[in-house]
Design a protein that fits this description.
- The chain is mainly alpha-helical.
- The protein has one domain.
- The chain has four helices and two strands.
- Strands 1-2 form a two-stranded antiparallel ribbon.
- The longest helix has 17 residues.
Length: 87
């Protein structure tokens, strides 16, 4: 586990969100936007970025967690919390 910069964390979170929440390529939303000019998919993307930006920049600490086995994530997080609470 390593500490991350705000910009690095924001970039990684946005990239993960693009992979998981692919609403920008959703045929249903694209068709809805086509027939409803007041609906703007890009506005949703800007809102997402604004919310995540505030979340990241208002965080006390940001860590990047890497493990060959995702089942070890919980232990890594608990260990880090113990270190932080001991300070």
């Amino acid at each position: 586990m390593t500490e991350a910069t705000d910009s690095e964390a924001l970039r990684k979170i946005l990239n993960l969100n693009r992979n998981v929440f692919n609403y920008l390529r959703s045929p249903l939303l694209i068709a809805y936007e086509f027939f409803n000019p007041n609906f703007n998919i890009d506005e949703g993307l800007l809102n997402e970025k604004t919310i995540l930006n505030e979340f990241v920049y208002n965080s006390k600490n940001i860590f990047l967690l890497k493990s060959k086995n995702p089942l070890h994530y919980a232990k890594e997080i608990i260990d880090q919390l113990k270190v932080e609470s001991a300070k």
